[in-house]
Design brief:
The structure is a homodimer. The first copy, chain A, is built from 20 helices and 33 strands. With about 775 residues, chain A is an alpha+beta fold. Chain A has a nine-stranded antiparallel sheet with strand order 1-8-9-10-11-20-17-16-15. In chain A, strands 7-6-12-19-18 form a five-stranded antiparallel sheet, with no helix packed on it. In chain A, strands 21-28-29-30-33 form a five-stranded antiparallel sheet. In chain A, helix 7 packs across helix 20 (about 690-705) and helix 17 (about 625-635) crosses helix 18 (about 645-660). The longest helix of chain A is centred in the middle third of the chain and has 24 residues, at about 505-530. The first copy, chain A, is globular, with a radius of gyration of 27 Å. Residues about 170-185 of chain A have low confidence and may be disordered. At the A-B interface, strand 7, strand 14, strand 15 and strand 18 of A face strand 7, strand 14, strand 15 and strand 18 of B.
């Protein structure tokens, strides 16, 4: 194809078709642009296919057990027939196969040579993209060559509305080790789409449907172009599937190129009545320009994104590629143009967690966006503002005041955590108990404010969220008269091995911090933004007395600790639990469950799923002494199973902070390669997007040692000896700081208007940066 | 179409497309021939489709929870497109629609007028059959007319290998009242087919697959012919679906006729290597003759079947049609040519009970076949002989001697009853406890012998089954030393409301009868069949001493009873249970559950699901006095819920026998219309085939009062006053008796070689029948 490949450290490659791995590569090879994500299924379909196009914010429940991010009509289908014989891996032998995701351009390249039962060799190449320049556009270019035969070939470019979301049926899965073909059949299907239109002509195919409960109209328009010698073949118009066809009398050795361009619009984008005309007009215009021109726009947009967030690990191509792979998925997951949508736990690359939004956004994803794409960060936080009504409803339904953000959020902010595991065997308590999410939302707002100085945002949106959520905390906190202190009982902290616990330090301390920050913001806005703030206070019926009470309550929140050992206690009574030891590790030095235990049996022991206290110390770096961080890291690290993909990155970062580098590189790899090598075994369900954010943090905040402390950028780097240099960039209050760190030195280039200055701290040394000049400093 | 319709009392009609009823009509309109059954789905598919072609004896387990009768490749697909626009009920408005199943000819006729979105009216007529003359052949003739437009129409005749069996998911179903489109999606799919070949040319399409565990090769060959003006269009060859296409420039008002003929062969029919050639040759020959000629052969075969089993209720068209409908389904369910297959509880008309074979065969179906199609009956009993190894394995696995027939049987005779209900909530005990099945198998053998005098069969097969099963009983019976009697504890009788019961009278008495009959047969064969019997005894290591012990044990089997009330006790302790009354009936006078009770809560009460004692008295008419029958009928009838579709027919029959006619007609209707009006609500799962057999018995043995008593045909008729006459025929020892019964008289025509005589009993009067002359006698 004319669209050339980038250098090797940008390329993720599949070398053969392996149906057992089909789901994994569908996830890895997702193309997207924040508006849509489309899994990397083969154009013609395949065994074990679990394809999906997901549109940010398009949710529907209908007959699902819990609301789903809707599996929308697919724009991928592109089938080649040789004399009627469908060319695919089921019908043919796959002689050669390679696919390459070019992370730099966002193009997915494919080259497959098929041999059919009559020995005919047919090569199919394709390149696919979802445009970053116009988020509604996407396309596939297909090149067919008949290597040893002259045949009539037909190409069908379809839009498939026979979509459903999957409902897991684990009872069936465990029965046997199913072959790949069978595996995906053992699911129930949830339907979300009602058909409204399905039409196709020689010029255009169009399929329109509407989500059943939420009533969102989705229009997909597609146009197929082929070589001049091709003839229009019959278009097929079925109720839930349409296609355009072209046929050609192909001559041996010739290449024939077919372009399919697609536009997707929904009634979230334009009014319902305009969906069709807008989509059709858009695709007609794109088609007139041609595939390469449309793709070129997208590649240019990608280049501009990468300029702000690329990160290179010199001396380690694999690590560079892995970091870029994670950043690629972060970039296609979030939509700076849609403040009503957010990033689900599996982004738009799969149906795991049904597209629901967790604390992952605030704690794992936002740092990346805040420091590289602040506009996107702003949109992600605005989603919380736009779902504030749902949060208010949650609080009211649970008997509290103010706004309580949901543990799992979809389109409205109403709590959507399922109450039971798939099999109905285990009650899920996170929706009721994992209440720290509300403080994490505040944490996201405050981090954004610090990094951007965007006080307009704070005045318009941030303050209202902080105030309403503070009200929640004050009503949720329970006064213990005996000790005259405030407590939070029956909660779950970040470490989900322990349910129904009292006074989880992470939760209590974050709630306290939340109330403190809200009171600070209130004081400052009251002082500096008189009228605007008065109007907000009126609207919320919020008085200075009420805010004073927030501070009073915050001051009395109970934080369990053992001062004699300089240890924070994860929760009240944790130190009395059985101190079960981790004694075995797998070949990657990751802990194995103590004998006789599993996920559900560790409530009575000190074993953790993922960091809880350590997480807190990472998030609030100014609040704990170096000694406390070190003591707690040593204590908790050896009791942590890392059974969440979020865990290793935090341990990499905090290990480096406290000077324990022994596991840092391994934890980094664990995080960076979680999907590339499918080391949790569930990549087929979608990308571990929080881990992708954690990977970026482990480079920048771990090896780079970047932290914002007391409102100032600080660095405390450490590099594994096999790395020559790491480089990354940080957006800071409208400017940009380019950072290169090698084994001895840091190099900073402060990209800001001439005359701007910024004082940073590098390993406890102050450094004054001037705009436009690279400055270097030794560290360590 | 040129194939004309029979008179109204042969026709079952659907007047509109109602997707909520789609599954019901798919079941009712099943076409078949004992070799295959194909549900009556529309050729082009439809919402709520639950299509299936089932092949007798083709079972497979693979990833299903329990072995399935395999949903084999479908020969139905026949799609019409107008300018590419698929004509079906999803794409178009259905302006007119009617389907008619002609029970006399076995043809399913269809006439639908579609209006597409451009206002084009297209009429599609079809007629479909599965040949009774050559069980491997089937076909669809399609007539298309474009009523108000000239258009290019394309017709695609396909073979669909994308088949799966369904695994119910009731947890999902109960959540909401799903619309029809959604309803059938909430199932898990069990795959059974591995593809082997899929090809299509202008002349022929062929698809071959192999069942995954049982390795049965299934080849389906299809040939499409159209009018001379039609042009071959592209054949589509996909991995699991092939089709041939023809296109035509259709002119307004013209009719265009397309014929699709299909041949199905499996490696159960010919050796694996010959499957393809045989199927292709067969379809080529059929295609050369043309649809009408092939259909004519089938119609002739149907006529010959009906000559032996038609039954008319003069004065009641609805009842006649219903009886014929039940007989139609009996005829297409059983295969006289295949002694390795039997009839599942839903025949081959649906996936209910997964095609498993129950006691239904022996008790409900065999009487119909024995007395109208004795060759078919012989094949059905030979199935038990051919699964004797499985029965021996069951006995061995359960710790017993001899052969124990399974409660649910598939291809091997090994027990296949699932141990849990779909949802895993309720343990199913019938596989362990409903052991009367083994005596029922013996009952089928003995009834067949009495009616046919087929001693060759008894010598070759029947005796061996009787002996091996007797060994099972003797080892299973438990000696009670205190009372010196034999007992059977922890069983379930026909009434499944009561589990884990001891000494169920039905089971104990049938086991006793079984041992008695086995000993009698042994004595007679020993006397009359010296060498042959000696060889059998040698093979089984069976001595006269062992058989003497059968009689001894039989004599000591405990039968619970209350002689003071002339009552048989259903099981030991039954009379001590709570005597809960049925106090409410629905609008059809069928009992409603006592308040607060359901299927699973009646173990502690006297309420029955279906007759148990009454069933026994029906099956062994010579063993109980008239007084006992009357007393027990009165006692048990008012405690019976009729929650099995098998129940009403037996109560109709036994009510008439004891002179309680009050409910007889209502019970008959309940049985005869169970599927036609879907009065159990689950007709979509398949025909209640045992109820179909019960319906025939309620006419012949109920209203006709036919019973074999002491080896002689006897009649004790009673007719509802609204009926003028009933007629039926009975095969008896190679001859045939035609019976007509009106309100006063019976008319008998004995069809036998001249000179043959037969003495029968009519309402206690002896009647000597001479061959060839109709004789009449008054009754009552």
């Amino acid at each position: 194809m004319s669209l050339s490949l980038s250098s090797d450290d940008w390329l993720v490659t599949e070398q053969a078709i392996d149906f057992d791995q089909a789901g994994v590569f569908e996830t890895l090879f997702t193309v997207g642009n924040g508006y849509q994500g489309t899994r990397g299924s083969l154009e013609e379909g395949h065994i074990g296919e679990l394809s999906g196009t997901y549109l940010a914010g398009v949710y529907d429940e209908h007959d699902a057990n819990v609301i789903d991010l809707v599996n929308a009509p697919s724009w991928l289908p592109f089938v080649v027939r040789v004399e009627g014989y469908r060319i695919d891996a089921q019908n043919c032998e796959v002689v050669e196969h390679q696919r390459t995701l070019d992370l730099q351009t966002g193009l997915l390249h494919r080259d497959t040579l098929f041999k059919d039962k009559l020995g005919r060799l047919t090569r199919i190449k394709s390149v696919r993209f979802a445009s970053f320049a116009d988020q509604h556009l996407c396309g596939v270019k297909l090149e067919v060559s008949t290597e040893n035969h002259d045949s009539t070939i037909t190409v069908e470019a379809g839009i498939d509305g026979k979509r459903h979301n999957l409902e897991a049926m684990p009872a069936y899965q465990k029965k046997r080790d199913f072959p790949a073909e069978v595996k995906w059949e053992k699911w129930a299907k949830s339907l979300h789409l009602e058909m409204q239109a399905s039409e196709a002509s020689k010029n255009l195919a169009y399929l329109q449907c509407k989500t059943m409960d939420t009533g969102i109209v989705i229009g997909t328009a597609s146009a197929l172009q082929g070589p001049e010698v091709s003839k229009p073949d019959q278009s097929n118009i079925d109720y839930r599937h349409v296609s355009q066809s072209l046929s050609i009398d192909a001559r041996q050795g010739e290449n024939y190129c077919f372009e399919k361009l697609v536009a997707i619009y929904t009634s979230r984008d334009v009014i319902e009545e305009d969906v069709r005309a807008t989509a059709e007009k858009s695709v007609a215009a794109a088609s007139a320009r041609g595939f390469d021109a449309v793709a070129a726009d997208s590649i240019a947009a990608w280049a501009s994104k990468w300029a702000d967030c690329d990160s290179v690990i010199t001396g380690d191509v694999e690590a560079t590629r892995a970091v870029r792979f994670n950043i690629y998925h972060l970039l296609i997951a979030a939509n700076e143009n849609d403040p009503r949508a957010n990033v689900g736990a599996k982004s738009m690359s799969g149906e795991g967690y049904r597209g629901h939004v967790f604390w992952d956004t605030e704690v794992f994803l936002l740092p990346f966006f805040i420091f590289t794409q602040p506009d996107t960060a702003r949109a992600l936080i605005l989603y919380r503002y736009n779902t504030l009504d749902g949060a208010i409803r949650n609080a009211r339904e649970n008997g509290f005041a103010g706004a309580q953000y949901p543990w799992e959020s979809a389109d409205s902010g109403v709590e959507t955590t399922p109450k039971w595991t798939h099999d109905g065997q285990n009650r899920i308590w996170t929706g009721e108990e994992e209440i720290h999410i509300t403080a994490c939302v505040a944490y996201g707002i405050m981090t954004y404010l610090t990094a951007t100085d965007d006080w307009d945002f704070m005045r318009q949106y941030g303050a209202e969220m902080l105030y309403q959520t503070s009200r929640f905390w004050v009503s949720r906190l329970e006064h213990n008269a005996e000790h005259d202190r405030y407590e939070l009982t029956r909660v779950i902290g970040p470490d989900e091995f322990h349910e129904h616990i009292d006074n989880n330090t992470f939760t209590n301390r974050m709630a306290q911090w939340h109330l403190e920050k809200a009171a600070e913001i209130f004081a400052r806005l009251d002082a500096e933004d008189g009228d605007g703030h008065d109007s907000l206070k009126d609207r919320l019926a919020l008085s200075a007395d009420e805010v004073a009470r927030w501070s009073d309550v915050a001051a009395k929140i109970y934080i369990p600790a053992d001062p004699s050992r300089n240890l924070v206690e994860q929760f009240e009574g944790y130190f009395d639990l059985e101190d079960l030891a981790i004694t075995e590790w797998d070949e990657n030095h990751m802990p194995l469950y103590p004998e006789g235990h599993d996920h559900f049996s560790l409530n009575g022991t000190m074993i953790l799923k993922q960091p809880d206290v350590i997480m807190l110390m990472y998030m609030l770096p100014d609040e704990f002494s170096d000694e406390a961080k070190k003591a707690n890291f040593e204590f908790y690290e050896k009791r942590t199973m890392h059974k969440s993909s979020l865990s290793p990155a935090i341990h990499a970062i905090m290990g480096i902070e406290v000077g324990d580098h022994s596991m840092a590189h391994r934890y980094f790899e664990r995080s960076a390669f979680v999907d590339l090598i499918n080391n949790q075994g569930n990549t087929a369900d979608g990308i571990h997007i929080a881990s992708a954010g954690g990977t970026w943090q482990s480079v920048v905040c771990g090896f780079g040692g970047f932290r914002v402390r007391h409102g100032q950028m600080t660095f405390k780097p450490w590099l594994p000896e096999q790395w020559e240099q790491i480089s990354f960039a940080i957006k800071w209050r409208g400017k940009q700081l380019h950072v290169r760190i090698n084994q001895e030195q840091c190099h900073f280039l402060f990209d800001a208007p001439v005359g701007d200055e910024e004082v940073i701290v590098v390993s406890d040394q102050s450094l004054e940066l001037a705009a436009g000049t690279e400055q270097s400093i030794s560290y360590g």
